[in-house]
Amino acid sequence: QPQNEHIELHRRRYGYRLDYHEKRRKKEGREAHERSRKAKKMIGLKAKLYHKQRHAEKIQMKKTIKMHEKRNTKKKDDEKTPKGAVPAYLLDREGQSRAKVLSNMIKQKRKEKAGKWEVPVPKVRAQGETEVLKVIRTGKRKKKAWKRMVTKVCFVGDGFTRKPPKYERFIRPMGLRFKKAHVTHPELKATFCLPILGVKKNPSSPLYTTLGVITKGTVIEVNVSELGLVTQGGKVIWGKYAQVTNNPENDGCINAVLLV
Amino acid sequence: MALYNFKKITVVPSAKDFIDLTLSKTQRKTPTVIHKHYQIHRIRHFYMRKVKYTQQNYHDRLTQILTDFPKLDDIHPFYADLMNVLYDKDHYKLALGQINIAKNLIDNVGKDYVRLMKYGDSLYRCKQLKRAALGRMCTIIKRQKQSLEYLEQVRQHLSRLPTIDPNTRTLLLCGYPNVGKSSFINKVTRADVEVQPYAFTTKSLFVGHMDYKYLRWQVVDTPGILDHPLEDRNTIEMQAITALAHLRAAVLYVMDVSEQCGHSLEEQVELFRNIKPLFANKPLIIVANKCDVKRIAELPEESQKIFEAFEAEGFSVIETSTLTEEGVIQVKTEACDRLLAHRVDTKMKGNKVNEVLNRLHLAMPTKRDNKERLPFIPEGAVARKKRMEVDTPKRKLERDIELEMGDDYVLDLQKYWDLMNSSEKYDKIPEIWEGHNILDFIDPDIMRKLEELEKEEELREAAGEYDSEPESEDEEMMEIRQLAQQIREKKKLKILQSKEKDTRGPRMPRTAKKASIEHTLVQRKVLEKEMTDLGLDMTNKDDAHYVRRSRSVTRKRKRDESETPKSVARSRSSSRTPRDVSGLRDEKMVKKVKTMAKKAQKKMNRLGKKGESDRHIFNLKPRHLLAGKRKSGKTQRR
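Predict the joint structure of the above. Result:
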């Protein structure tokens, strides 16, 4: 039976076929032609994927070629130019006037003030009731239409118990209840899976806030005890706000950015 | 316990390939068309199916990998140890653990997203959910890249390990590197292990098989072991140690007497002492190899004492030389015998023997009287046996004579005839002598025998043995025979009748037609007379085309100008133009006509048709035109 490295052993004993190297050289020479033929003939989804991959390859190749070229040529050294140096055709211009400086300062202050309430997702599309709540028909003849089912992802607290089914107006299906969110720290650029504590505000409507509906732009409170943040005074921070950045009903998960 | 076959483990694809494979499979094997206006349950089902299909595929493939790779606890400890040495048990288990985790994760993802998809109320939402699900599963696989790579390498190496049966009779070779273990195994079995002058040529275990006493034996060749403590040993040496530790085999400790391996005799003895604990319970033989270079007797006193010490301890020392092959067979027989005895001993001591022993009973016949009854051996057999041993020349066979004489040999059976007068052996036997047929007198009783035969024949005939069998046919056959008879009669009558009809008179045979042509055609004289009456000059018309030439002339003509038809040179009455040139003007036309005829036949012949009217289609519904999706191309060619 062929044991261990029988292929290498055979090669060492008997060498290669007489035309082996020739064949290999020719095969490698043919590679380019084969590839181009394949690329021309492929159609359909396969072709799309192939062309995408090939495009990426080509970009890389071009980059390396460019890098090699750069190495051989001389380039302008940016560090040598002093700061504030201005090209000849701009020498005649006046510097910034004091008035302008003042107005800039005021604008800056205003921005900073507004910046306190800055959120990563400032504007969101408002979700109408028909979109978020689906009408459920009940009754013997299915005529009554006072029940609503939430079609978006929602959060219900720990001690949540449904109202008796006969009286509950808003149905929040179990399949759409989420407890955890993937929260990204904007500075650390790291993502953690943290449990949700509650929904703070839903920008579309206060009704959604009370129901706990989570859509894009909702501000939620998450349990950050995992991160081990500490206040100046030495207390451990365990709850922080985060804003949802995706459409959870389309993706099946809640992605949020921590509001620092 | 599952039976593992190391050579049949499924190929572990790389992460990228795995993803491509599964996704393209999903795209091909699930329906692809969906529209916004379909009913929502249909849309949901469509996308759920894709998610489930992908999940199922991943699950199946990963389960296959997990079951195919051997669990280190389930296999023989020899293999478990060997795999630990080669692949690191921890790493191996971790890799398989990771794959298991990935499988569970993928299952969970699939479940979750299918649950979510039930609440999808639009095509866009369901599509996004499916995209998220597939993406998540593929990310999980992408993270397993390292494990998959590692497992693929393990699989490749594992499939090339030699199949060593740990339970059968085995001889194990061990010793320093370069002492001659691989040469020994090459000599004794058909294994072709590389033998080179540098140390550690053999880097792993090799197995060879040989036969002895009608049994199959394994011979295992190990890489050389150096003399240092167990912790310092590298992977290659550890393989040898593993084999020594786990295989219950006869150990052949090979030593190099001539010290050509680069290690002195003392070092080799030191190594022997160090690994002695591994030889417990195993029959051991010390093989003093390379004795063609230096014999033990040539060694100095101290070295010889070492060997004597070995003998004293009870290990047999055998001198061998794999180059001159002396002592090799001796080692083999000694080792095999010792191992067999050892195995039998162990079996006797074990528990299983009792079950068999109870049922075994050797029956000896009881003596009925005191008479000695020795076996009877005929004289010839004894003589022959003696002859076999003494090796007397046998009588000369015909074959020997044939070989001697070569081409001149003639088979001459008459020399063996037993006649009263031996000089008559080669006489020719006449056929008739004094008016009598010799063959009649071959046998003195020939007349009597002939009469007996004839009588017998008469009796037989009288008994009716030669009568044709009575028709055992039934009514049907009788009817058919009658009918056939009638048909035959009718046929004959019809022939006679038609002969009588004589509508066209007596028919001439075709051969006679030629003679009649003359009467039907116009005579030369008549033609010329009529033309001169009309006013044409008809003198000197011997060369005209209507002149009938005698046969020989026309024949000659035909042969000279082989293909020229020249209907001018021929008159109709003498010879008809052959059919293939009739109606054609000249040679050029004939050629063209011939080529046209051949061309017309080409297509027919190529398609294997019987003739130009054969339009039979062998396959009315070819599979390649009617089956499958219309991917690229039309129905004509798909």
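The helical segments of chain A are 6-14, 20-41, 45-72, 98-115, 129-132, 206-211, 248-251.
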